[in-house]
Amino acid sequence: MDIDIDYELDAVARRVEQTDQQAAAHLDRVGPVTGQAANGAVSVEVRPGGQLSAVHLTPAALSGGAEALAAQIMALAAQATRRAGAAMHQALAPVLGPDGERHLASLGYEPLDNDSPDIEDTVYESPLGPPPRRPRR
């Protein structure tokens, strides 16, 4: 049985192109994730890859002192980054096939589980809505 190398290479190229198009369509739905303290004094924005892109403060944010403000910004940014990674995971896992979740996890894009600690009095927004809840194992 002879193998037609050109045919096989064309088939691989078609699968790569199809996967690329599917991934691009899913990624178009992923936008920044915002995290905001419930009182609205501090908010952060994180891009899908986890890069902090904006920090917004009101005068009320300064009332607790510099250390408390820094801690709140870091906590909001960390949680928003985890949520951005979960959004990336949610968007790309269906496209990447059976090994996709493992590859995404190696990049730090993991779904949020039911035990993920949330910051109290914090509101988060993601263009994909809340991440799906995974059953406890």
From TrEMBL:
The keyword Membrane appears for this protein: no
Gene Ontology terms for molecular function: DNA binding
Compositionally biased intervals (Pro residues): 128-137
Keywords from the UniProt entry: DNA-binding
Regions of compositional bias (Acidic residues) in chain numbering: 112-123
Pfam families reported for this sequence: YbaB_DNA_bd
Positions of the UniProt region annotated as Disordered: 99-137
SUPFAM superfamilies: YbaB-like
Protein name: YbaB/EbfC DNA-binding family protein
Native organism taxonomy: Bacteria, Bacillati, Actinomycetota, Actinomycetes, Pseudonocardiales
